# Entry
Amino acid sequence: MREYQLRMPKPIEAAKTFMAALEAKDGDRAASVCADEVTIVLPGGETELEGKEGARRLVRMAPPFVRLIREEQVDGTTVILRGLTRAPGHFANYTTWTFETDGSLITHVSFLWKPAN
# Structure
């Protein structure tokens, strides 16, 4: 009998998959790299989305921005992605996304915007 081991994503892979899913408006794909108890903190810190359904909800409610990641940092199980978020013809923000993981699945997401123009 042969055992198969499910390959779990590395923290950077989980973060990049989440961002690609956000860009593609694919809530199920975003949820697939999140732990069941994931918490997503929206800018300002007053609103949190919880669980895999929270990840799907974030994807559904996200405007059609252009997100360019220019810097990646991995510190153990935490991934920080920095870049530019633009609403074409409207505004641009420097954005920092922080993904905390349990080593493979995302357990906490937060992001901050700082005006670029």
Observations:
- The chain has one domain: 11-115.
